Amino acid sequence: MSENHPDGFLRHPRRPIGYREPASRVADFHQIYRFRWDPAQLRTQGERCMDCGIPTCMAGCPIGNIIPDWNDLVSRGAWREALARLHATNNFPEFTGYTCPAPCETACTLAINDDAVTIKDIERAIVDQGWEAGWIRPEPPSQRSGRQVAVVGSGPAGLAAAQQLNRAGHRVTVFERDDAIGGLMLYGIPDFKFAKHQVARRVQQLRDEGIEFRCGVAVGEDVSIDELKARFDAVCLAIGARRPRDVPVPGRELQGVLFGMEYLCAENRHQAGEPLDAAMNAQGRRVVVLGGGDTGADCVATAHRQGASSVVQISINPPLPDTRQADNPWPQSPQVRQQTYALQEGGEEAFSLNVAAFLDQDQDGRVDALELERVDWKRDDQGRRTDKIVRESGIILPAHKVLIAIGFEGPEAACLNDPRLTLTPRHTLEADARKMTPVPGVFVAGDASRGQSLVVWAIGEGRDVARQIDLWLMGASRLPASLSTPYPPLPPKGL
Ligand SMILES: Cc1cc2nc3c(=O)[nH]c(=O)nc-3n(C[C@H](O)[C@H](O)[C@H](O)COP(=O)(O)OP(=O)(O)OC[C@H]3O[C@@H](n4cnc5c(N)ncnc54)[C@H](O)[C@@H]3O)c2cc1C
Ligand code: SF4
Fold first, then answer.
1. Could you report the per-residue pLDDT of 197-248, keeping only the tens digit for each?
2. What is the CA radius of gyration of the chain?
3. Pairing of strands 171-176, 148-152
4. CA distance 484 to 411
């Protein structure tokens, strides 16, 4: 199909849409990515794809996006066809086109010894174009199955499951504990990484397809699993994994020591027009972020936008090496030190530091410093930390606000007050290969099933669980599975 550009990568250098300048973007809460892109530039970027015999990019993409096809279609200016190809595997390409860390690009064949194709930006461009041109419309099913499904949780997993199940003809109701639909896409990921009108227009599409949304309903409290089972033929739990990991050291109770998630969510709500509680405002404050991961980076970037006087991001681990190690070959994601978008905007990072205590030196009930120790770790053969070796202790770091962003420990209302729902040792909801929990007809998807992960995995999980539910309800399903699923579709018993 793409004979006319096998050497595109020799003719065109990689030119992504890219980010806005750090000094300019840090002054506002608008998206960090460049607002506009040039269709001609994106076409040449599509031409850089070689249409390899074995498209390793697709294996790198958790939902198996058919990347070479849409690269080729974009290179020919066939944007609408590219959009159809993209939607075949991804319900919400703008969710990923804006937020995905793009494991497809590190798996791109060109990345062996050249710059990868700008896959993520091409995805964004296709779906931007789709919305702008009015090509993305409701697609209600032509026939109804007579079956009803409850989806609990409205993050990307719940929404993808709901759309797939609805398109299979089932009547779908989404129950959401929060006051609005979107999960972490709405209250979690900062506005400058993902603008919230992008959630609202998808929710409208889903409503127009016939999906019903019920906000302010906490399943397990307001309605039990058995009550849902009595009213619906199947239930899908897509409740996320938002219980934050804590730092249980002396001084944890001090004012100013917050979970990063509470802080980020408060700023999301502020951007949506709600007042910002003073406790959630870092203006003029010295901020220390605990945790070197992505949530930590979002806290750093938010603190800068609020006007923090200084921001330090602390990691308990040593820094990653500057170059790829021999035991981390292509197409694996390179485990190398990279400056995050947040630290490009300012702030410092520090490594191998463990918190011994939160201090209140002036005894006013508020944190004013951290006591840290410099540590090394003994690790087991899986690379997991075992014993701590303290190299230096008593390090004092001033802090007015400490944001804890060291990971998550599974669903908040873990078992939804139902003793039949149990957790695995990894704090995920127990389920079989069909994604069915020990309660017949009750399925699980997304972070609740995998642990805190990525938007793209959540969409894939939602697609997979929809297929499993459809199989369970109807005995057969035309819904596709997500191609990289760890739960390959199994025929239901008796087939
Ligand atoms: C700060 C932050 C930034 C992130 N940034 C990125 C990023 O840039 N790129 C990326 O790929 N991933 C990112 N992630 C991860 C990504 O957001 C998640 O993996 C994804 O949202 C998981 O989707 P989900 O649908 O499983 O769960 P969630 O998005 O967590 O949605 C779960 C929903 O269930 C609802 N719920 C929970 N319990 C109940 C109940 N009892 N009754 C009713 N409703 C309930 C919740 O209110 C929530 O709306 C980020 C995560 C965080 C925390
Ligand atoms: S969803 Fe992520 S991994 Fe898949 S093609 Fe898009 S950017 Fe790449």
1. 999 999 999 999 999 999 999 999 999 999 999 999 999 999 999 999 999 9
2. 23
3. parallel
4. 24
Q: Which amino acid is at 41?
A: Q
Query: By C-alpha distance, which of 232, 231, 187, 181 is closest to 206?
Result: 181
One-letter identity of residue 114: D
Which residues in the chain show pLDDT less than 50? 1-2, 487-495
Which helix or strand (DSSP H or E) is residue 349 part of? strand 348-350
**66, 67, 94, 119, best to mutate for ligand 2 pocket (most atoms within 8 Å of CB):** 119
Q: How far is the CA of 132 from the centre of ligand 2 (A)?
A: 21
Mapped onto helix, strand or coil, the DSSP state of residue 329 is coil
Structural element, H or E, at residue 369: strand 369-379
Regarding the beta carbon of 240 and ligand 1, being less than 6 Å apart is answered yes
Dist. CA 449 → ligand 1 center (Å): 12
- For residue 236, what are the CA distances in angstroms to 51, 434, 462? 37, 12, 9
| Gap between the Cα atoms of 121 and 143, Å rounded | 36
Helix, strand or coil, per DSSP, at residue 98: helix
pTM: 0.96
256 CB under 6 A from ligand 1?
no
